[in-house]
Specification:
The protein has 164 residues and is of the alpha/beta class. The chain is built from six helices and seven strands; from the N terminus they run H-E-H-E-H-E-H-E-H-E-H-E-E. It binds S-adenosylmethionine (SAM).
């Protein structure tokens, strides 16, 4: 599934990529495997043991582990002077967050994604996230990935309304 996520995120041609909620790094490793040599990946993780684990186990100069919540992507984009990220990949467990927090993260993603970029979200709940994504992105698609245990929903969103 991590390889499928890397494909949906267009990693082979991406240069600036963000991962939200990398956890122990299973998806991070596949994103890095597909990312061009001159690409950069910023991974935002709030749980300090996972931050330490990622830093200790993935030795890759293209990876920056940011010990901040997902909405801090706005500051990173400004600090880097980027026109927008090519891809934002999220495994944040949105069903566990308050609606206001979810909206804050999705708005930050829409504000920081390049107009031609793609937001990819991994979810397990069949219906929860898609309507919230449609409020921020013009084009939302979903696929069920059956080969994962449990089967997962992969949502892709394009056309950030903040940039429209
Ligand atoms: C389902 S786990 C990700 C699993 C990961 N793909 C792996 O292979 O280990 C979700 C992760 O999102 C992180 N998380 C939760 N809320 C977050 C937020 N607001 N910003 C960034 N990360 C967050 C959690 O700490 C957790 O590591």
């Amino acid at each position: 599934m991590a390889r499928r996520i890397a494909r949906l995120a267009g990693m082979e041609t991406a240069h600036t990529v963000v991962e939200l909620g990398p956890g122990t790094g299973a998806i991070t490793r596949e994103l890095l495997a597909a990312l061009p040599d001159d690409g950069q990946l910023w991974a935002f993780e709030v749980y300090p043991p996972f931050v330490s684990h990622l830093r200790a186990t993935i030795d890759d100069p293209r990876l920056t582990v940011v010990p901040e919540s997902a909405e801090a992507i706005v500051e990173v984009r400004e600090a880097q002077g980027l026109p927008g990220f090519d891809a934002i990949v999220s495994a944040v467990p949105f069903t566990l967050l308050e609606p206001a927090e979810i909206t804050k993260i999705l708005q930050a993603a829409a504000r920081t994604l390049h107009p031609d970029g793609v937001f990819v979200a991994l979810q397990y709940h069949p219906r929860y996230l898609a309507p919230l994504l449609r409020a921020q992105f013009a084009d939302v698609k979903r696929e069920v990935y059956l080969w994962n245990i449990p089967p997962a929903l992969l949502l892709t969103a394009r056309g950030p309304r903040e940039n429209a």
